[in-house]
Design goal:
The chain has 820 residues and is of the alpha+beta class. Keywords: Coiled coil, Hydrogen ion transport, Ion transport, Membrane, Transmembrane, Transmembrane helix, Transport.
């Protein structure tokens, strides 16, 4: 048996790549080039030999800081380009590589130039805004002043006659109104302040003026017809022109302070109309000159930014790579002579030759007189886990890694999930009409794969695009299961021939009460379409899907146990095979494997035996005769034997392994209380289910026994609960089918029964929305999550530990914009 298993070909994804711990001794003069070439290769994961040092204490901290400063400048240029509405358009001709020092000087010069232009532009914009505000105030405030003067002269007599006497006291309008109306502004001491303020501050500003002057002021306002650009945010701001009439120097001081506090800009407006016109002409002339100056400055700034934009993408890539190189160099140590850097790291065994060739090329290109020393080290810690995946298998590997990264060289569930995951999804989602809709979406993502892979997508779209092959396989399996269920949007079709059943008479009046009769061979593929709408449809489909769910669940759990056997055999742990795999297989299949056998026999023979009764009384009365529930000869003694084997398997799982470990320990360490285990039988690096961790620990019998007790109880109870958990396949499949039937019959057919075209159209729209959002989105997500749980818990829980760590090589291809 062992020879046969050894001769089986290895699967690429079954176990992670063999890893090797290597040491590099690199001369200082070629260190930068060596690390750069290794980053281009992307097959070496460096270990941090300076973990006890802070980032500022490391050798190349100054270079990392310089790269960080250049990254800040590049982000500044990118923001300026975005703000100006310009795009980074790289030149088509090849640009020569630039040294880091030259790039640093160029970036400093460009930044100084852009900052100076921004400063000048901001000052010019500020001056332009002030002149624009002054022009608006002149135009709006002149109207208030003209109307006030005319009103004061024209209505003087009428207002004077409007006063009247009361008990010797003269009552009239307010003092401010009297002064405004009886005398000109310059004769009565009535003064005014004009200015402009943000529209959102106007109400609070007016209230504050009213309270500060105790109502002795007249406030006029009008919105400005033009928006004014804020130079700091480049956004248009709505403002309002105001004119405040008051009397007295004290009121003037208060009003000016309030204007300053609210950010209102005050501008002097002469009362003389001639002076107003002359001042307006001067302001318009200066505005025209400033507009031309601003336009010229903007063109000059855009030309400077375009010059930067041509090389910005290349510069950002260069700086990111240089920073990554120096970050990696900071993980290396100097040797005692301070002439070489010493580094350690993990690499796949197959990549040792490539790494050696790259290091030789780096030594030659750097003109170093001393070559790089590259040799293999003995590893103490567990190596990282590395699987070589492609576009199809990568998505399934990510689903498995979301639960936990496989332990080094542990059996990889992703190999089987490529088929089992979309299939279990399809069992719950089986409808070939809905499957076709999913297939169209998946084909769209696959057709635009090259274009979408280069775009920055949103989080939801990125998730869909990453799982495009998962969706594609789920759609194919959904079509397959839908053909088995014979459901197209819940409607059955005679795709593979005629039905095996017919009505008892020509009227078919009793088809849904008495039932149909069989008159020919069974329907060749899937469920016979005549079951749809019959009185036994629901009991038949319930029985079919429930039994099918149990069969699929037991098959997948047995696959998990078989993988645990291959894990134990690979790691050389015969204890796990003898005292875990064998009793677990006996217990699971003595009970639920036997149930699966009864289901298959009942299907093949057409027996009317009650399987519930058989399984219940197998425990309650194992010696009683089965009677009409007997499916085959010798069933009762077989049940007694299986029951005894299941009871024996429980202590078999619990007691032998802890005592066997204790015996090996006592023999090795001659009865000492504690010691370190080192053989393959008891070493935890090769003992997947042992109670100890990966690091060497003291042997503790009580801890191992308690762990084994918990593991045994968990498996016994989990065998029942996990089998029941697979019934979700039946439940979700039935729910999906019934929901689809409700939408078809109660929405589409009901609306189609009316002659009104509007009602029919509404019915089609409601049916389409219900299908798209409930059946194709919510039901897809529900089936996806349930299939995920069945794999993570019921399947992987039988053999998968998931306590490894990913292989993360130093690679320029893996550096993203977020790593800056």
């Amino acid at each position: 048996m062992d020879d046969f298993l050894d001769k089986l070909p290895q699967m690429d994804l079954m176990r992670s790549e063999k890893m090797t711990l290597v040491q590099l001794i690199i001369p200082v003069e070629s260190a930068h080039r060596c690390v750069t070439y290794l980053g281009e290769l992307g097959l070496l994961q460096f270990r941090d030999l300076n973990a006890d040092k802070s980032p500022f204490q490391r050798t190349f901290a100054t270079q990392v800081k310089r790269c960080g400063e250049m990254t800040r400048k590049l982000r500044f240029f990118k923001d300026q380009l975005d703000k100006a509405g310009l795009r980074c358009l790289p030149r088509h001709e090849l640009e020569p590589d630039i040294e880091l020092g030259d790039l640093e000087r160029q970036l400093a010069d460009h930044e100084h130039e852009v900052l100076e232009m921004n400063s000048n532009s901001e000052k010019l914009r500020q001056t332009y805004n002030e002149l624009l505000e002054f022009k608006i105030v002149l135009q709006k405030a002149s109207g208030f002043l003209a109307s006030s003067n005319a009103h004061a002269i024209g209505d003087e007599t009428e207002l004077h006659e409007g006063t009247y006497s009361n008990n010797g006291f003269i009552e009239s309008s307010s003092l401010l109104e009297q002064e405004m109306r009886h005398e000109p502004l310059n004769q009565s001491g009535l003064r005014f302040i004009s200015g402009i303020i943000n529209k959102d501050k106007l109400l609070k500003f007016e209230r504050m003026l009213f309270r500060a002057t105790r109502g002795n002021m007249l406030f006029n306002q009008t919105p400005s017809d033009e928006g004014i650009m804020d130079p700091s945010t480049s956004e248009m701001v709505e403002k309002t022109v105001f004119v405040v009439f008051f009397s007295g120097e004290q009121a003037r001081t208060k009003i000016l302070k309030i204007c300053e506090a609210f950010g209102a800009n005050c501008y002097p407006v002469p009362e003389d109309t001639t002076k107003q016109r002359q001042l307006t002409r001067e302001v318009l002339s200066r505005l025209s000159d400033l507009e031309a100056t601003l336009d010229a400055g903007t063109r000059h700034r855009n030309n400077a930014l375009n010059a930067v934009g041509y090389s910005l993408t290349k510069w950002m890539t260069t700086v990111r790579r240089e920073k990554a190189v120096y970050d990696t160099l900071n993980m290396l140590n100097f040797d005692v002579t301070k002439k070489c850097l010493v580094g350690e790291g993990w690499c796949p065994t197959f990549a040792k030759t490539q790494i050696h060739e790259v290091l030789q090329r780096a030594t030659f290109d750097s003109n170093s007189q001393v070559g790089v020393i590259f040799h293999v080290m003995q590893a103490v810690e567990s190596p990282p886990t590395y699987f070589r995946t492609n576009k199809l298998t990568n998505a399934f590997q990510e689903i498995i890694d979301a639960y936990g990264v496989a332990r080094y060289q542990e059996a990889n569930p992703a190999v089987y999930s490529v088929v089992t995951y979309p299939f279990l999804f399809a069992v719950m989602f089986g409808d070939w009409g809905h499957g076709l809709c999913l297939l169209l979406g998946a084909l769209y993502l696959l057709a635009r794969e090259r274009k979408l892979s280069t775009q920055k997508l949103g989080s939801f779209m990125e998730m869909l695009f990453g799982g495009r092959y998962v969706i594609f396989l789920m759609a194919l399996f959904s079509i397959y299961c839908g053909l088995i269920y014979n459901e197209f949007f819940s409607v059955p079709f005679h795709i593979f021939g005629g039905s095996a059943y017919k009505c008892r008479d020509t009227t078919c009046s009793d088809a849904y009460t008495v039932g149909l009769i069989k008159y020919r061979d069974p329907y060749p593929f899937g469920v016979d379409p005549s079951w749809r709408g019959s009185r036994t449809e629901l009991p038949y489909l319930n029985s079919l899907k429930m039994k099918m769910s149990i069969l699929l669940g037991i098959a997948q759990m047995n696959l998990g146990l078989i993988l645990s056997f291959f894990n134990a055999r690979f790691f050389g742990s015969s204890l796990d095979i003898r005292y875990q795999f064998i009793p677990q297989m006996i217990f699971l299949n003595s009970l639920f494997g036997y149930l699966s056998l009864l289901i298959i026999i009942k299907w093949c023979t057409g027996s009317q035996a009650d399987l519930y009764h058989v399984m219940i009384y197998m425990f309650l009365s194992p010696t009683e005769e089965l009677g009409e529930n007997e499916l085959f000869w010798g069933q009762r003694p077989l049940q007694i034997l299986l029951l005894l084997m299941a009871f024996i398997a429980v202590p078999w799982m619990l007691f032998p392994k802890p005592f066997a470990l204790r015996k090996i320990h006592m023999e090795r360490f001659q009865g000492r209380t504690y010691g370190v285990l080192g053989t393959s039988e008891v070493d935890l690096d090769v003992e997947p289910d042992s109670a100890r961790g990966h690091q060497e620990e003291e042997f503790n019998f009580s801890e191992i026994f308690v762990h084994q007790l918990i593991h045994s109880i968990e498996f016994v109870l989990g065998s029942v609960s996990n089998t029941a958990s697979y019934l979700r396949l039946w439940a979700l499949s039935l729910a999906h089918s019934e929901l689809s039937t409700v939408f078809y019959e109660k929405v589409l057919l009901l609306a189609w029964g009316y002659e009104n075209i509007l009602i029919r159209l509404i019915g089609v729209v409601v049916f389409a929305f219900a299908t798209a959002f409930i059946l194709l989105m919510m039901e897809t997500l529900s089936a996806f999550l349930h299939a995920l749980r069945l794999h993570w818990v019921e399947f992987m829980g039988k053999f998968f530990h998931g306590d490894g760590y990913k292989f993360k090589p130093f690679s320029f291809a893996l550096i993203s914009d977020d790593d800056e």
